[in-house]
Amino acid sequence: xxxxxxxxxxxxxxxxxxxxxxxxxxxxxxxxxxxxxxxxxxxxxxxxxxxxxxxxxxxxxxxxxxxxxxxxxxxxxxxxxxxxxxxxxxxxxxxxxxxxxxxxxxxxxxxxxxxxxxxxxxxxxxxxxxxxxxxxxxxxxxxxxx
Length: 146
Hints:
By secondary structure, the chain is an alpha+beta fold. It has a single domain (about 35-145), classed as Dna Ligase, domain 1 (2-Layer Sandwich), CATH 3.30.1490. The protein contains three helices and seven strands; from the N terminus they run H-E-E-H-E-E-E-E-E-H. The longest helix has about 30 residues, at about 1-35. It is elongated, with a radius of gyration of 19 Å.
């Protein structure tokens, strides 16, 4: 009797885990299919920015409004840092509007294409796709406006 109860419990837990995994995959597929960004893409390296085509890259604090715009050598370094971003894992999130953001990166090119990306210590959000990276990945950007 005890063995049947344990088996049923394991089956239910397995079914719950399978439903959760399927839910996360569907959410990722939907988020990626709606990803429409001029600079970012779903690739191991999210960005492929050509500094000659970039008008500016800036970082902004969502709490204070303080913004720092990179120029000259710093612009090249910021673009290189973004190009070197390699995510550890990616997932979709529900397209629900929230009340605000802590930090963001803004990119505009010479053709007038403009986009902003929410960032944290170890993540970047493009539309409803979240790219998780190493801890401290965006610390250099955030330090400019903290």
